[in-house]
Write a structure and sequence with these properties.
The protein has 622 residues and is an alpha+beta fold. About 4% of the residues have low confidence.
């Protein structure tokens, strides 16, 4: 490996390390006014169950009618009741609805319906239990209705629930009605779950409520908490984010922080995202007028994060008001999310920051090939092997040019060593003579550097793709029980600084093969320069601690790619590239008359001036 190849790979390494640290660093949300945060948090905080006790006849025995009327007005009769649960369910999701608030009580994501060999994969949490995306009293959907100068949350009231209706297309519908005592004035929540869909349509239907509700917006409270579903809590919290798309500014997101807050205007959709799943609110018409979001990351080993949001719904004050919202409870699967349009698939991190451009490599090359392979192959380890081979074939022309450049530098190495010995510590003079030698031999000094840099988008694309691919979740291969997280063959029970609390075998194999590759190329490097001599060995060790906690699919890919590089280099250098022919071509190039470009002439003139100035300075010192 020549000096320029080493420089190229070092640049790749430096950029890759920078990207990794950038990607791992959580984004700090902007802090807003404290009084607004406190007020919204108080508004959204789930209330304690203070439902009055009723006797056998249904009469309230803990509060008198006058108190109820003062606090709840026309909704007083809905304060007490008996909780009843109804279930909307298809092959992929189960939604348990309660008449207490007319809202989901539990959301269980059951299966992944894909087009591949595993087209009905069951979803489970890391401990083997059902994957409940939403469960517990913290999660709630509630309108804040103004009654007698107070806000009454519908989550605290009892609705009258209809029987579940199954339509001819397989969809299921249930309606919850909040009575006011006036048949011409009521509030309805209508839930519709289509067959094999992760989306439940939530239609807010208000009849005759315009006399009760003031203003042009209707506040909808949405509280949600994610509990631990994956093996690695650190990775889950890194991917615990709020994504959104604004009407004027497009898609953006922020990572959850402790007690952070954000205010958004004209929101086309809002998504609470986990590592592999999300809950998203998408209005069927128009936008949410605004969204006040308060997030928190509790000091809990089981809670990944939680958010409390007030969505302001546009309210036209009509006597028959309707605002339908599609709520997505499902996986972060690229093709599924893309089918909704409106940049919904952007919640999957296929390339961010300074490497945002690699998302196009993933969208246009990696994902289509991965889907093609998974359509007929059920073993994802084999799929990764075939995908790696495909990628290596894709970059084969650049790889070949890099090896040819190495061969040319190997042929020129004796002459370069002679020049280095001749000029000693005079690096400027050596550089000028080196450039002359390259020009006369017809060798580009960037021949080994540029091919390596052109491989960078592929390397970073794979770094983004594998940890984000839900298809790899809980898929085993060899000793790795889950390709979406690290493959631990030994747990220490304590943390080693800059390394972790476990040993990832794929990461060790990746590091060992990187060192073998560096050792194999030691003859191609400048052994007189300590940096060039030792950096190829130091760099893989530096990456060991970083990759030790990354997805096994990613480290397996890098290990396999290293093995292919070692085999390719051995075959090409020994059986394909003709060093004698290259040497003859270089000697022939030296005999040809050379014409310099204007840029080369200016560089040569600049080097000559610098050399003259250096000689003048040395003579003055004498």
């Amino acid at each position: 490996m020549d000096r320029n190849s080493i420089i190229g790979f070092l640049l790749i390494g430096a950029l890759l390390v920078g990207y990794i640290f950038y990607n791992n660093k959580t984004q700090v949300a902007a802090q807003k006014e404290k009084h607004r945060k406190d007020s919204i948090a108080a508004l959204n905080k789930p209330k304690e169950d203070k439902t009055p006790v009723v006797d056998s006849t249904g009469h309230v025995v803990t509060a008198d009618s006058a108190t109820l009327a003062a606090n709840y007005g026309v909704l007083a009769n809905a304060v007490a009741g008996t909780e009843q649960v109804q279930v909307l369910e298809n092959d992929v999701v189960r939604i348990e609805l309660t008449n207490k608030g007319g809202q989901p009580k539990l959301v269980r994501v059951k299966a992944f319906k894909g087009e591949g060999a595993k087209n009905n994969k069951q979803f489970l949490s890391s401990d083997g239990k059902p994957l409940d995306l939403q469960a517990g009293s913290y999660n709630r959907i509630s309108l804040a209705l103004p009654v007698n100068g107070k806000q009454v949350n519908t989550a605290d009231l009892y609705f009258a629930g209809s029987q579940i209706q199954t339509n001819a297309d397989g969809s299921q519908v249930v309606t919850y009605r909040l009575e006011t005592g006036n048949p011409a004035q009521y509030l309805e929540y209508i839930y519709t779950l289509a067959k094999d869909s992760y989306v439940v349509n939530f239609n807010i239907h208000a009849v005759g409520m315009h006399n009760l509700i003031a203003g042009n917006t209707l506040p909808l409270q949405w509280n949600s908490r994610f509990t631990k579903q994956e093996h690695d809590m650190t990775s889950e919290r890194m991917n615990n984010q709020m994504h959104y798309r604004l009407e004027e500014k497009g898609h953006d997101y922020f990572t959850l922080q402790n007690k952070s807050q954000e205010k958004l205007e004209k929101v086309q959709w809002l998504s609470f995202k986990q590592q592999f799943f999300n809950v998203t609110f998408m209005p069927k018409k128009g936008t949410f007028a605004s969204a006040d979001i308060t997030t928190n990351v509790p000091q809990s080993p089981n809670i990944v994060g939680e958010q409390m949001t007030t969505l302001q719904l546009p309210y036209d004050r009509s006597a028959n008001y309707s605002f339908p919202i599609d709520i997505y409870y499902g996986p972060n699967h690229y093709k599924t999310l893309k089918s909704f349009g409106n940049d919904f698939e952007s919640i999957i991190p296929l390339g961010t920051g300074i490497f945002a451009f690699v998302k196009y490599v993933n969208k246009w090359i990696i994902i289509p090939v991965f889907n093609l392979l998974s359509g007929s192959i059920s073993n994802y380890g084999l799929i990764i092997i075939l995908l790696t081979i495909f990628i290596r074939l894709l970059i084969a022309p650049f790889t070949y040019q890099s090896y040819v450049s190495q061969a040319k530098m190997k042929v020129l190495k004796p002459e370069l060593d002679a020049l280095r010995a001749k000029h000693g510590d005079d690096q400027q003079a050596f550089g000028m003579e080196q450039m002359k030698l390259f020009r006369s031999a017809g060798v580009s000094p960037l021949g080994g550097c540029l091919p390596a840099l052109l491989q960078l988008p592929i390397l970073v694309a794979m770094y983004s793709f594998f940890p984000s691919s839900i298809e790899l979740r809980q898929e085993s291969f060899l000793w790795a029980t889950d390709l979406s997280t690290y493959d631990s063959i030994l747990n220490f029970g304590f943390e080693i600084p800059f390394y972790g609390n476990h040993v990832s075998l794929f990461t060790l194999l990746m590091t060992v093969t990187s060192l073998i590759l560096a050792f194999y190329n030691r003859g191609m490097t400048d052994q007189s320069n300590p940096v060039m001599k030792y950096m190829p060995y130091v760099f893989p060790i530096m990456l060991l601690g970083i990759f030790n906690k990354l997805a096994a699919a990613l480290t397996f890919y890098y290990f396999l790619s290293n093995v292919i590089s070692i085999v390719l280099q051995f075959v090409l250098q020994n059986f394909v590239i003709n060093h004698a022919k290259i040497h003859a071509q270089i000697e022939e190039n030296k005999k040809k008359p050379k014409t310099q470009s204007k840029f080369a002439e200016k560089m040569a003139e600049l080097q000559k001036r610098q050399q003259e100035m250096q000689k003048q300075q040395q003579s003055r010192k004498k």
